[in-house]
# Entry
Amino acid sequence: MTPVWDCMNASATPVRRQLHPPPVAPSPFPYNPGSLLSVQDLTLEAVSHILARATDLENMDPLVRDRILLKRRVALLFYESSTRTRTSFELAAKSLGADTTLVSSLSSSIEKGETLKDTGLTLRALGAEAIILRHNSSGAAWLLEEATRLPVLNAGDGMHEHPTQALLDLRTILTHLRPGIKTVTAETLAGVTVSIVGDILHSRVARSNMLLLPRLGARVVLCGPKELLPELAANAGPDIAVERSLEAALRQSQVVMMLRIQAERLAGMQLDLEQYKANYQLTGQRLAAQASSAVVLHPGPIIRGLELTAGVADGAQSAILEQVRNGVAIRMAVVERALATDGKGGGA
Ligand code: CP
# Structure
């Protein structure tokens, strides 16, 4: 198993074919209390605080809000493409008054071979007070935090985790199933089944949700073909089940989270897409027949006509664009928390 700190540069080989990523680095990570590397870093109290603060910040007068992190410096360091995460983190930081700068692997000295560590140290020397990192290697956020000791926000590391996506997914689920709830506990989602369908193997979104939702009492059903959901997933946890039939998964679900097939991580794997669609595409017919009141989620980007039909994506049960909107609120709370002097949020 590759230790997380072995991914020493941008071209390090991503850890592949592991349903279970390397274990979260032991203490003393995170060094910086403002970091968010994994959903496992967060107690339910911290999750409650982030959710409440997201709502406070969303409702705040923008002229008051943009003084909270006035002129603080936040760097976005992106080694992989992103639309939702990058834009919402940037809008979130700017909404709080912070100055942001984007370093993308395609237009920076990363192309010349500069390592993640040296890029991070350079950003720190330039005055960055927090770094938001998306990287193709699992564990890269831990490496960056170790090197810089700055607050690092994991915006997706390889096939490992995407903690802010899980938080915004949770906010979306609570809005639909537990409206008005103020704090989350181990019973908040008792009786709720969330099916995660599709390319579980390569999905950091699935992993962060699998780590978070059962802690609130939800049952998670993983659904997909063997190529994208290995048998060993059956051992993922007591509140996590594997179901090969989409119809059977839908019948149990109050929430259905569809996933894109991550073509960029298939690495030669042969997948019969027509067969996949026949068995796993979320169609209006399947939804109406098996889960007519379930909330449909998708982290995006969606591929219309593959994992779900356009009718489902645009339909009344879809909360996909709500998820996108919730991303800004959640990321405001997380960026504020990163730069708060006590590391617990509530303002710098
Ligand atoms: N959900 C998500 O991470 O989307 P992006 O890749 O567009 O950021």
Remarks:
- DSSP finds twelve helices and nine strands in the chain.
